[in-house]
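quick one before i forget lol
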Amino acid sequence: MYSILIVDDEPNYLVILSELLKDEGFEVFTVSSAKDGLVRMTELDLDLVITDMQMPEMDGLQFLEAIKNINVNLPVIMITAFAEVDKAVAAMQAGAFNYLAKPFSNDELLININKAIHHYSLVKEITRLRKEMLERTGFSGMVGKSKHMQQVYELIEKVAPTPSSVLITGESGTGKELVAKAIHYNSPRADKPFITVNCAALAENLLESELFGHEKGAFTGAVAMRKGRFELADGGSLFLDEIGEIPLALQSKLLRAIQDKSFERVGGTVTLKVDVRIISATNKELREEVSNATFREDLYYRLNVIHLKMPPLRERKDDIPLLVNYFVNSMAGRLEKPALMVEKDAMRLLVSLPWEGNVRELENTIERAAILCDESRITSEDVQPESLGSDEQKAFGRELNLEQVIPKDAGLNDVLYAIEDKMLNQALDDTSFIQARAAEKLGITKSLLQYKMKKYGIKRRK
């Protein structure tokens, strides 16, 4: 819904214009002075200002100048008396979108309003597209030619042209957001916004406001009206990252917004309509969350119209050399090291490692190596995982007497499996199954802990 501020010192005129524009589906705010208008501008996310030319204290030209200092692109339509044409021309030269001389027809006003709002939408879209230009080419950032990735590419090509919701699953660091962008930018919505929300990054009350927006005074700290991500994504795609973390209490409102394409801002009473394609992602098993009653089944089926699973890096090792070269070339440009290269021994080590943090971990490793390597040559020493090289771990290894704890005929895989399983269960028991604390105790990331829990079939005991 487009938001319009009307500024006029004649109360009857405010009422007439307000009712007309509300009937046309606009969200309308009114004030009787330019000074009040400037205050409201700091509180509202506006698409247009309509102001009278002649007002006490601050006239329309002064008001226009103040508006342009706040938001140079916001369109302003000036309303003038017939004798004020000279001022109207001055207003156009100062940046007004247009002027209307009294008396004017409703049709004339609405035509100008729609043109102004359309123009402003294009300006905002061009600004956004300039920032995202590099992300709009094909499957930008997605590297790999393995069988698994070919299947991903084929599915993206089939899914992208449709309006259906897509659920992308896979471990952390596998590139789920890149897939979401590829779906959007290869769809009919490519010239519309691609808006992202990380559902795990905000508390429940803040996440609701982030998704649906809020009215001024809706809660402590809500000093101005703010549009939510659903409104900002209207006509485009909304990417709900880590959807498995969304609180149960908020899931019903999200379901309604997806199902009915309507919602109210927090603290608001006006129902807003949007056309948004939903793309979501999670590293959780949502079916298990549904079984555990922590995720709504009806919401799961709304999100999971089309399911796309991203393979972990260990299942597409053929892609590792391609990814390494891609990251090396990227780092060479950023670090101004044109001769940067990876030695063969280093490449062999990189291919052999498990990469439980997936592509993100590999990228971080290459970036660290590119910065620390000597003479622009990345060696096997430069890409050693930190977990293999600490002095504390080497000292622990030297002091450990294997004969006391491991049978002589035990195989390496059996020993590693038993020890890891035991340590995971012990850490989870010691921390009352709080995964973040258990991961910290083990010295690993939470996402790696969750991967290992799945690997060993570890579930919370009831």
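fyi Residues 106-131 form the longest helix (26 residues).
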